[in-house]
Design goal:
With 365 residues, the protein is α/β, with parallel strands linked by helices. It folds into 2 domains: 176 residues, ATPase, nucleotide binding domain (Nucleotidyltransferase, domain 5, 2-Layer Sandwich), CATH 3.30.420; 178 residues, ATPase, nucleotide binding domain (Nucleotidyltransferase, domain 5), CATH 3.30.420.40. It is 43% helix and 20% strand. It is built from 11 helices and 12 strands. Helix 3 links the parallel strand 4 and strand 5. The chain starts with a strand and ends with a strand. It binds 5'-O-[(R)-(carboxyoxy)(hydroxy)phosphoryl]adenosine (KG4) and zinc ion.
Length: 365
């Protein structure tokens, strides 16, 4: 008889409190029965970034309610949960701790296994949850907190072949919006302003393109944008709508160019492993950007590589991906005990040298 596994997932590593119920019958594709996400952007809006202490308190207040809501939405009772999977890092430590403590309480109270999950593995395994993608595959993780190329070979077997050495691209979009007085989150507002702009008006830098490898940098781009903005203000006393649109279009064009060219390099490195059916998957909020997505699709086409992007609500932070990564660990015979610790930094690939930088959304590991 094939076993049915029902996993409760918890996520609280940044500014989204999330609980999800995932069910897998035998070897059939896992089914998301519920995936409840409570965002905290209102709480942090006045501060221009995520405030760790506020985030931690909000997670602690919301986790119980979130679990109840997820159970109700899935029409599942606590006693039919087979295991609890929880983000144990990397991330803002107060939030991670809230999740880990909640998961420990549930696992102890229900006498079921506890599975600690690396948040980045949650993102990186999402294409397996949504599209049953086979190992190995290349993953580009681009969000407000993360930016890295990973070759995924197994649930805990990742090679990081490049990443940002400072800001994540989403962070750069958010800062750009802030500098131009556009609403947060910056990605969608910069993207929509860019539609009416001239991407060639400002020659913004393409950082690290002159260096080999797949590492990226976005903080210099943001500084260049600030200078371009200040030069217009000094000359004309303010910014017109057209100036804003042109700055957004020029900024977005630079990000697209850097991400596209570095992706081409990452694909070439990955193809040296000669997978039969090469595939690039993308995850993270920035994957919603239509210009970046179009560029990635075109780069993949040029290199004979399939492209896949999970639906946006599974690209951004959510507990379904944590439940799924937990399910893969559990099925591989792995689980944790009450000694599970919350980790602010937790690189997926411990062999790769540490990347610099730790942005407003926490450690990039
Ligand atoms: O993955 P995510 O929800 O959260 C974490 O960073 O963990 O990503 C949010 C980031 C924000 O920085 C947001 O500005 C960016 O994704 N984003 C976009 C777009 N939509 C969201 N960036 C560029 N273009 C977009 N359309
Ligand atoms: Zn994330």
């Amino acid at each position: 008889m094939t076993r049915t596994l029902t996993i409760l997932g918890l996520e609280s590593s940044c500014d989204d409190t999330s609980a999800a119920i995932l069910r897998q019958k035998g070897d059939a594709p896992a089914e998301i029965l519920s995936n409840v996400v409570y965002g905290q952007s209102d709480l942090h809006a006045a501060f221009g970034g995520v405030v760790p202490e506020i985030a931690a308190r909000a997670h602690a207040e919301k986790l119980d309610i979130c679990v109840e809501d997820a159970l109700m939405a899935a029409n599942v009772s606590l006693d039919s949960i087979d295991a609890v999977a929880v983000t144990a890092g990397p991330g803002l430590i107060g939030g991670v701790l809230s999740g880990v403590m909640c998961a420990k309480g549930l696992a102890a109270g229900l006498n079921i296994p506890l599975i600690g999950v690396n948040h980045l593995a949650g993102h990186a395994l999402t294409p397996r949850l949504t599209d049953q993608v086979a190992y190995p595959y290349l993953m580009l993780l681009v969000s407000g907190g993360h930016c890295q190329f990973l070759i995924a070979r197994g649930p805990e077997d990742f090679s990081r072949i490049g990443g940002t050495i400072d800001d994540a691209p989403g962070e750069a979009f958010d800062k750009t919006a802030r500098l131009l007085g556009l609403p947060q989150p910056g990605g969608p507002s910069v993207q929509s302003a860019a539609l009416d702009g001239d991407p060639k008006r400002f020659a913004l830098p393409r950082p690290l393109l002159d260096r080999p490898g797949c590492d990226m940098s976005f903080s210099g781009l943001k500084t260049a944008l600030l200078r371009a903005r200040d030069a217009i203000i000094a000359e004309k006393g303010g910014l017109t709508e057209q100036d804003r649109a042109d700055l957004c279009a020029s900024f977005q064009a630079a990000v697209v160019d850097v991400v596209g060219k570095k992706t081409a390099r990452a694909i070439m490195q990955y193809l040296r492993e000669t997978p039969d059916t090469p595939l690039l998957a993308v995850a993270g909020g920035v994957a919603a950007n239509t210009a970046i997505r179009a560029e990635l699709e075109s780069v993949c086409q040029t290199h004979g590589t399939q492209f896949t992007a999970p639906p946006l609500k599974l690209c951004t932070d959510n507990a379904a991906m944590i439940a799924y990564a937990g399910l893969e660990r559990f099925k591989a015979g792995k689980q944790d005990d009450m000694h599970l610790t919350a980790r602010p930094r937790w690189p997926l690939d411990t062999r790769a040298p540490a990347l610099l930088g730790s942005g407003k959304k926490g450690a990039k590991a």
